[in-house]
UniProtKB/TrEMBL annotation:
Region (Disordered): 363-386
Source organism: Mugilogobius chulae
Keyword match Ion transport: yes
Coiled coil: none
Main location: membrane
Protein name: Neurotransmitter-gated ion-channel ligand-binding domain-containing protein
Amino acid sequence: MLLDLLVLSLLSAILNKNKPADVPCTEPIAFFTKNKILRSLYDLILLFICSGAVISHQNCSYQALMNHLGLISNKDLFTLSRPVKNYSNPLKIEMRFEVKEILELKEVEQTFTSYIKFDLYWVNEFISWNESDFCGLETFLVPSEMLWKPDLHIIEIMEKDKSPRSPFLRILSSGNIKMNMDQVVHSSCRMQVYKLPFDTQTCNLTIKPFHLTVKEITLARTHREYKPLVMESAFEYVDLKIKEHYTSNRALQKQMITYTVILKRRSVLYVLNFILPVLVFFFLDYASFLLPDTGDKLSFKITILLAVTVLQLLLNDILPFAPKRIPLILVYCLGVVTLMMFSLLETIMIMFLLDRDEKSQKRGDNMEAEKKKENGKSVSGNFCSH
Ligand SMILES: *[C@@H]1O[C@H](CO)[C@@H](O)[C@H](O)[C@H]1NC(C)=O
Ligand SMILES: *[C@@H]1O[C@H](CO)[C@@H](O)[C@H](O)[C@H]1NC(C)=O
Ligand SMILES: *[C@@H]1O[C@H](CO)[C@@H](O)[C@H](O)[C@H]1NC(C)=O
Ligand SMILES: *[C@@H]1O[C@H](CO)[C@@H](O)[C@H](O)[C@H]1NC(C)=O
């Protein structure tokens, strides 16, 4: 083919050189005879090359293959139905599903974000060609609307992924079709925060067809699962469990595959940032009993109580709005605050009593002084009178 092109361009270059404008007018006849011969020679060669190309390379284009397969003339036949020759045979769909990255886990919204690699493979029984008939063409891409596709989806998905998807399907000469559904999955995940920060979370990703029943497709897993990359720093990966199960509806039973990602929280930071400070404030509060009972002690205690309350506000960012059971960490926090409240009340009580005591003592002193004064007066009076 390349050679043909080379010859063609060489010939046209020669012809262009001998254009009439370039030829001196003194030899018109000679030029014309020469040119005519050249042109007819050129035409002959052109015809030869072109017909040769048509004969030897007619099957090297994608169009030839599409025409052979009938992908264009019988377009609808390929999209309308399951690509099996006998409808009673279920179509085997091989799935490669990999949780590649765990991006985010939000306790408050109860969502799980992950990046998954998801490839589907099946055989279209109406597509096949002999590679040697088509210049050794083994595979090509078609727009994904051109062929039937299984209607698999992930049932936990809450939000449609906005990242671009591959618009193509790959077809192999044996009729094998590969479909790519890599995506970022925003899914729901019911999180258990009862034991926070020593909790383990399990998030499910369940693959299920919308309509296709077990009589129509069977799902099969290929490839082993790899350990995902955890981008969410608060958690570490523990395990991935896979379970194949079926819907309970007998007549239209569907196959499902559930991937359960198990993650464990890294609790060190929670302990250092929350549990320990609260405990320290608690002990400080009780240590303040050693202080003298003055107004300073009271303000010290109130400051500590406020500090604990501020720390407690941090929990708002972690805990879901209405958890099933009250998380232990909240109980711990409330317990500490309650104890501190009691100690504060006690201090207030003591100060009140001391104050009253002091006042009554003062009053007593005053009265005594007055008495003394009076006594003194009476004494002096007595003295006077004496
Ligand atoms: C279609 O498949 C069913 C079940 O596999 C089989 O019994 C039947 O003979 C097949 N029909 C044809 C025409 O091959
Ligand atoms: C493909 O064609 C070649 C020759 O055209 C033939 O030898 C070969 O057996 C064919 N292969 C298949 C799978 O039909
Ligand atoms: C081109 O493809 C057709 C089938 O569509 C086949 O019969 C023919 O032999 C092929 N020609 C060449 C040159 O490979
Ligand atoms: C996740 O899937 C497993 C297995 O099907 C199931 O037992 C579990 O209840 C599911 N968890 C959630 C939160 O849906």
